[in-house]
What we know:
- The chain starts with 8 loop residues before the first helix and ends with a helix.
- With about 140 residues, it is an all-alpha fold.
- It has one domain (about 10-130).
- It is about 60% helix and about 0% strand.
Amino acid sequence: MNEVIPMNKTERAEKAVEYKHRGLNCAQAVTAACGDLVDMSDEKLMEITSGFAAGMGCMEATCGALNGAVMIGGLMKNGKGTVSSAKDMLRSFEEKSGATICKDLKGRDTGKVICECDDCVRNAVYAMSEVMNIE
């Protein structure tokens, strides 16, 4: 799934949505679309992100798309300064999406969807791109 043709952040975000529509979970969709930025095989990226669907099960935790973006950032930085980058990605994602917790984004308890999965995936790619200075 790693793309060999350089993409800008908008193309990368749309590629992530495409992967989501192909059946990948939100974390997998983001990492698949950003896999060309890191030195890890597609298979390993899919394995490490496989448990981050539905906010790590039952929509209770952080959006999988945001988790995937933070993982890519950590790999890009070789784990150095990742906490700060993660904080910045979380803030950016929350500004764009309205929340960071899957059940809140999907309106599980309120019946009001704040942000659909496609937009969460896009917003995670945009947040990661901003923080990691990717055009």
